[in-house]
Automatic annotation (TrEMBL):
It comes from the Bacteria. Residues 23-301 form the ABC transmembrane type-1 domain. This is ABC transporter ATP-binding protein/permease. It is found in: Membrane. Keywords: ATP-binding, Membrane, Nucleotide-binding, Transmembrane, Transmembrane helix. The chain crosses the membrane at residues 23-44, 56-74, 139-156, 162-180, 241-265, 277-298. Residues 334-568 form the ABC transporter domain. Its main location: membrane. It is a multi-pass membrane protein. PANTHER family: ABC TRANSPORTER, ATP-BINDING TRANSMEMBRANE PROTEIN, ATP-BINDING CASSETTE SUB-FAMILY B. One of its GO terms (molecular function) is ATP binding. It comes from Enterococcus alishanensis. Signal peptide: none annotated.
Amino acid sequence: MIQIIKNIQFIIGEQTKLLVKPLLLAILDAFLNMFFYGVMILGIVRLVERSFTRDFFIQCVFFLTIVFVIRLFLSRFTYNSMQINGSIIVTKLRIQLADHVRGLNSGFFNQNSIGKLTSNFTTDIADFEQVLTHNFIDFFKAFFMVTIGIIAAVVIDVRFALIIVIMILVALPLLIVGGAKGNKLAGTHREKINDVISRVVEYINGIKTFKLYQLSGAKFQRLDQSFNDLKKSAIKVELSLIPYVMVFSTIVSFIIPVALVWGTYLLTNEASSPESFIAVLILSISISGQLMAIGMLYPQMKFIAKSADNLREVLSAKPLNYQVDALDGANHAIQLEDVSFSYENGVPVLKNIYCEIPDGTTTALIGPSGSGKSTIIHLISRFWDVRSGKLTIGGVNLTTVKPDALTKHISCVFQEVYLFNDTILNNIKIAKPNADHSEVVAACQAANCHDFILKLENRYDTIVGEGGSTLSGGEKQRISIARAILKDAPIVLLDETTSSLDVDNEREINQALDKLMEKKTVVVIAHRLNTIINADQIIVLNEGKIREKGTHFELLANNDWYAQMYQEQVSARNWVI
Ligand code: ADP
Ligand code: MG
């Protein structure tokens, strides 16, 4: 219970104060509820004593009506305030979660599959919201009512109160054990949900490939299997809690007969008055009813605990830290000093890299596949931080720079282009949201995509499918170059395409790339002979180490890997690395 509140508090932080008002209202309601029982007890006592007068009856009716009306409003008010505050809390939580995830380094997204994050953003938050706005207050109200009931019982007759407490203590472990079991199962259940989401996403993304390679049967089987696993686990979760809740309810429902027997015993031995006997009996009815409500709501509270746990895990993931809010300097020279890096699996990918990329120059990275070229580009964009050594831009250590501040200075054009399911105009303008139309057109002209855009049905307002699925690879590539040109960032990170494009497309893309690279500090994973020869510096990587470094002519003179590759490719007249 305390853990639940602690987790909720950790997640919603300062907003916990929004829960205070509904909780206070619930306590007030619980007190008023006791008035009902109080009046009922008085009434029955009068009946037994044969002193139940008409006046007393009218007083009771009057009093009960007032309490009833107050409770009616109070209930509504509590409910409304919980709904409204709950929505505020959850909205802020969603924003906070999104902000938090944005600040994490990309490594986080590798360890955590899409399924898990999707489920954090959908299922966990939805569960959290559902329980917070619906069951949370009911649970605590029942809890207060039981507490007040026990206090009243202590006042009336300590011996009786003791018996109720003992029965609760006997029944409670059942809920705790059942809850712990439910918690464990809820964990595996959540994994199954994540698995289903991952499979569905995989299936939808890969549907073309599956069809092409006739994999749909095998892939469908995996999808079916994950659905079946989910079904089994859902049934298991539901069934596992039932026995515990049932036995708990049975035990607490016995509070009433036990009160009757114990009360009768005390009464016949004249150790108690008829008034206390009646009061005790009615209290036992109230307490037992509320305990049953707790039993029913407890599994729900466990759900919020599980969701809270999951959300807590995401929120506890350490964001990239930074001390420098903005990268102001005019100098965008990039320097790697003794940089080593490995991904989460710990396999060294870059080993003691030293290199300097002077401001306004182009550096071409070449080398066999897997030699670490893309990794260097990822480190410069701070997708990950270096494990050791130092990576600086304009002399500022990247590990101290706010990721958003860094992105402002960098344009990336990678091989895989992702376009949003939106108009072409908006897809380009994400690079510079306040750009006017003429700027966008100028960028598109420079990127050789203006002409084909004009031929589309709605020109710049044509909506491209999700991921840009209605455009060809070459067209998407040029749009991504137009984006980068529009952004006009001083640093350009480029992964030249190797995908086989038709000759026209290739020429147009090459021209566009040349435009983009003009006067910038460029790091390019180069595949075109032209880019490589014209680069100010060529770095040849091999197995995470720099094998050669220099200009085209220096490397030719070096007569190593580069010279050999160059000779081979030139004689074949077909330079593609
Ligand atoms: P290149 O771009 O030169 O082909 P990369 O920089 O992509 O090479 O990869 C260098 C090495 O790092 C490869 O051995 C690759 O398998 C490994 N690698 C790349 N990305 C990851 C990742 N996210 N997790 C683990 N290993 C990775
Ligand atoms: Mg690569």
